[in-house]
């Protein structure tokens, strides 16, 4: 019996050690969420997938000579619309200390403050693993490494590359930025999904609470990311008064609102509708954003 147990343990070690090594490598190098689930940070970038892919913390650090790197904590429309789950997550992630000239970037778009119902998003953030974790600051985050199947991450990359014909290079940065560069002529196109949208007073209230929380440790800027003309028209259709609402919140909170969606800017997008900037355009945009932030700060 003892000999059988020893053989069983040896077999388990032979299987589990390589699996654990593969699990950690895949999650830390390919999972878009993992860099956002370790450590606490001085300066935060919040929002949805446009901010996740479109704002480079490295460039912000370089432009403003920061001794620390801002952390991009934006996820996507299913995970991080403004609400109690995302607010609680951000509350655990930011360092409650004020540094000179520190600032936070809060990404806003109609979807970030609306309720969405469809076959893919019913329930939205309440079902996401990140909101079930006991810790979102451990390094390494062993709980996430154990609970997130590496094979699922690899399968998603395979389906993106082959089934959706999205030939792209993805670089998951330690600061939370997901840099995506598409091969010329290849764009990921999402199939038709029937959705219903409604403005949420609760999500708007949590956006305001997020501004209040982060304002304690630095200047807050509301940012509306660049999008294509088609996407802008769609958003004006589902929430016609969005810009007016953001201007009102910005005025009440004494917070600048920088709207790049309505500017005539020429950027490349990694998806056919025109939601997400490519890595190259994200860098260009972050330089422009830095210039505008610096101009605002210099006037104060």
Widest sheet: strand ordering: 2-1-3-8-9
Number of strands: 9
CA-based shape: globular
Q: Which radius of gyration do the C-alpha atoms yield?
A: 20 Å
Relevant CATH superfamily: SGNH hydrolase
Range of helix content:
40-55%
User: The biggest beta sheet, please?
Assistant: 5 strands, parallel
Overall CATH architecture: 3-Layer(aba) Sandwich
State the low-pLDDT regions, or none.
none
Q: Name the beta content range.
A: 5-15%
H/I helix tally: 10
> What is the overall pLDDT average?
85
Order of helices and strands: HEHHEHEEHHEEEHEHHEH
Structural class: alpha/beta
Quaternary structure of the protein:
single chain
CATH topology: Rossmann fold
Q: Which CATH class is shown?
A: Alpha Beta
Domain count: 1
In whole angstroms, the N-to-C terminal distance is: 77 Å
How would you describe the overall organization of this protein?
The protein is of the alpha/beta class and 300 residues long. Helix content is 43%, strand content 12%. β5 and β6 form a beta hairpin. α1 packs across α6 and α3 runs parallel beside α10.
Please give a handful of descriptors for the protein shown.
single chain, 300 residues, alpha/beta, two-stranded antiparallel ribbon, 9 strands, 43% helix
Q: How do the strands and helices of this protein lay out in sequence?
A:
Blueprint: H1 2-30, E1 44-46, H2 49-54, H3 57-64, E2 71-72, H4 84-93, E3 103-107, E4 114-117, H5 142-147, H6 150-163, E5 168-172, E6 178-182, E7 196-199, H7 201-215, E8 219-224, H8 229-238, H9 242-253, E9 257-259, H10 279-298
Parallel strand pairs: 1-2, 1-3, 3-8, 8-9
Antiparallel strand pairs: 4-7, 5-6
């Amino acid at each position: 019996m003892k000999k059988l147990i020893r053989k069983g343990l040896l077999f388990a070690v032979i299987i589990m050690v390589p699996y654990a090594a593969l699990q950690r490598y895949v999650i830390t190098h390919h999972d878009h969420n993992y860099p956002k689930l370790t450590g606490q940070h001085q300066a935060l970038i919040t929002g949805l997938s446009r901010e996740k892919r479109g704002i480079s913390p490295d460039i912000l650090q370089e432009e403003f000579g920061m001794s620390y790197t801002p952390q991009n904590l934006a996820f996507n429309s299913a995970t991080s619309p403004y609400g109690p789950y995302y607010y609680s997550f951000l509350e655990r992630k930011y360092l409650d200390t004020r540094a000179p000239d520190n600032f936070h970037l809060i990404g806003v778009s109609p979807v970030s403050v609306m309720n969405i119902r469809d076959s893919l998003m019913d329930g939205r953030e309440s079902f996401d693993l990140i909101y079930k974790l006991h810790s979102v600051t451990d390094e390494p985050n062993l709980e996430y490494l154990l609970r997130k199947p590496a094979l699922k991450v690899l399968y998603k990359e395979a389906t993106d590359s082959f089934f959706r014909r999205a030939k792209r290079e993805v670089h998951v940065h330690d600061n939370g930025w997901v840099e995506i560069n598409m091969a010329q002529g290849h764009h990921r196109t999402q199939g038709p999904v029937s959705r219903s949208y409604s403005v949420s007073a609760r999500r708007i209230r949590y956006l305001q609470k997020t501004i209040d929380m982060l304002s304690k440790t630095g200047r807050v800027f509301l940012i509306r990311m660049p999008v294509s003309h088609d996407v802008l028209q769609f958003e004006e259709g589902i929430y016609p008064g969005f810009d007016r609402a953001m201007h009102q919140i910005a005025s009440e909170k004494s917070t600048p609102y920088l709207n790049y969606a309505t500017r005539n800017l020429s950027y490349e997008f990694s998806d056919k509708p025109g939601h997400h900037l490519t890595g190259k355009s994200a860098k260009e945009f972050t330089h422009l954003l830095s210039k505008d932030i610096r101009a605002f700060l210099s006037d104060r």
